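User: Could you go from structure to sequence for me? I need the amino acid at each position, not a summary. Structure tokens:
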């Protein structure tokens, strides 16, 4: 049942999608899109219209590897102050979570911005900020580093880039993807060009979408029309915010502070040029180099082989298909980051699932 304004218009869009008479699988890479789809019941309505939508690797906490979290834990154990976003706290690893470490007395602080972490460092304490996020948040990290914060401050970069992950999914060919719903927030930074390269290389229909229910429904309709017509272009449903060129100032800042590196994502092998690390001229703020002696003998394994978070992130299964979902794995007892983060498919599905 629709529970938002413009219900009549929304139903007309869904009917138009159904009238196209196609069966297609679309993927998005945004936790806010997933929240909108599930919270407003759009997912089930679209399934009746022949459209299956999966969330791909659109949750930055979810794609951060267990190894990177263990790097952060090693730094915190050494007596340094570790500043993190709240969603990182409960993600399990083979050696426990950051929440466990804080309970044992380590100085793990939840902050709401990198500026808070820098303010902590201005008191003279050694502070490491775990920099997690896609192109939406990495410019704020770049800006902070470019401004040369105190010497006692450094970052552990876990920043990722969306387009290389999408290309990895298309190259792996594990799942049939008929179209991509591209994230509005990321697209405000990178614009449309990276998606046009995917369209040309893989003949992949794509639509950049906003976050309201009507935004998503229109994006699905636009994709469905492309599938019906056999076209593969990049359309911008979110043109009120996203410009074709993106945010040139933010892109310039990113290129000045960071370099692209190859890195594994949770559930993925190494993805080429998919992560950001500080350039040499800013390496004094690189926690991996500053505290290299602390980051040895870490386990590369994940927490639970039964957790199927990796398959959820690749769009292979919906959250409900994981045997742990809603039983041994809940937001209170998470077995993987997809249940921890509020942008994770499992957490969203659990929160909005029908109650008995």
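Assistant: Here is the amino acid at each position, in order:
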């Amino acid at each position: 049942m629709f529970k938002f304004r413009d219900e009549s218009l929304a139903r007309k869009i869904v009917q138009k999608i159904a009238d196209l008479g196609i069966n297609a699988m679309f993927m998005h890479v945004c936790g806010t899109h997933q929240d909108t789809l599930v919270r407003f019941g759009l997912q089930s309505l679209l399934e009746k219209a022949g459209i299956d939508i999966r969330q791909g690797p659109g949750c930055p906490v979810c794609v951060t590897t267990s190894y990177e979290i263990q790097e952060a834990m090693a730094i915190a154990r050494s007596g340094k102050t570790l500043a993190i976003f709240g969603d990182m706290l409960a993600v399990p690893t083979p050696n426990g979570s950051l929440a466990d470490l804080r309970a044992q007395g380590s100085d793990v602080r939840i902050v709401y911005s990198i500026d808070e972490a820098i303010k902590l460092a201005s008191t003279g304490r050694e502070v490491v900020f775990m920099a997690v996020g896609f192109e939406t948040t990495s410019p704020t990290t770049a800006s902070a580093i470019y401004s040369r914060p105190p010497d006692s401050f450094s970052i552990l970069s876990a920043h990722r880039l969306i387009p290389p992950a999408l290309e990895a999914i298309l190259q792996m060919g594990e799942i049939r993807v008929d179209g991509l719903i591209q994230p509005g927030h990321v697209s405000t930074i990178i614009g449309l060009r990276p998606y046009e390269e995917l369209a040309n290389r893989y003949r992949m229909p794509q639509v950049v979408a906003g976050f309201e229910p009507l935004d998503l429904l229109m994006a699905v309709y636009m994709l469905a029309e492309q599938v019906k017509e056999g076209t593969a272009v990049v359309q911008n449903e979110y043109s009120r915010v996203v410009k074709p060129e993106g945010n040139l100032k933010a892109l310039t800042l990113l290129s000045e502070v960071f370099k692209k590196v190859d890195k594994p994502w949770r559930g993925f092998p190494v993805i080429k040029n998919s992560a950001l690390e500080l350039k040499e001229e800013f390496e004094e703020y690189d926690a991996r180099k500053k505290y290299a002696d602390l980051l040895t003998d870490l386990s590369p394994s994940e927490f639970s082989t039964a957790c199927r978070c990796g398959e959820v992130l690749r769009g292979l299964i919906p959250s409900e298909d994981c045997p742990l979902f809603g039983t041994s794995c809940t937001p209170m007892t998470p077995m993987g980051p997809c249940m921890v983060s509020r942008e994770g498919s499992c957490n969203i599905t659990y929160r909005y699932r029908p109650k008995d």
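One structural detail worth keeping in mind: Residues 6 and 65 are 41 Å apart (CA to CA).
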